[in-house]
Write a structure and sequence with these properties.
Number of domains: 1
Low-confidence stretches: none
Strand content: under 5%
Shape: globular
CATH class: Mainly Alpha
Structural class: mainly alpha
Largest sheet: none
Mean pLDDT: 83
Number of helices: 6
Number of strands: 0
Radius of gyration: 14 Å
Order of helices and strands: HHHHHH
Helix content: 55-70%
CATH superfamily: lambda repressor-like DNA-binding domains
CATH topology: 434 Repressor (Amino-terminal Domain)
């Protein structure tokens, strides 16, 4: 796999997780401290994700870094969270964005 294909694979996985967790490109951009256009570029595979941002993504999405490097699998297209879990994650992300205490 060449670099361009690798960047596209990583981008598809970022988008898949972002959509799964109901996070907008704008909200993800705020968390990563970049523009939403940069998120679009990551998701399209136009730009590579730097190691620092990739590390932040592993924390946001609670995945191991290997998830982004492993070949695509059928699981990438299957919802791994229930609707209730998605709402909880979405709430936590929104609290993080607003710097609220999530233990409320």
């Amino acid at each position: 796999m060449d670099r361009q294909e690798f960047d596209k694979q990583v981008g598809r996985k970022i988008k898949s997780l972002r959509v799964l967790m109901d996070i907008s490109q704008r909200d993800l951009a705020k968390i990563l401290e970049c523009s939403f256009q940069q998120i679009q570029n990551y998701e399209n595979g136009t730009n590579s994700v730097c190691p620092y941002k990739l590390r932040k993504l592993t924390g946001i999405f609670s995945v191991d870094a290997n998830y982004f490097f492993d070949p695509p699998s059928k699981l990438d297209n299957i919802s791994l969270l229930t609707k209730k879990q998605k709402k909880i994650v979405s709430y936590i992300v929104k609290c993080f964005m607003e710097k609220k205490d999530v233990s409320e």
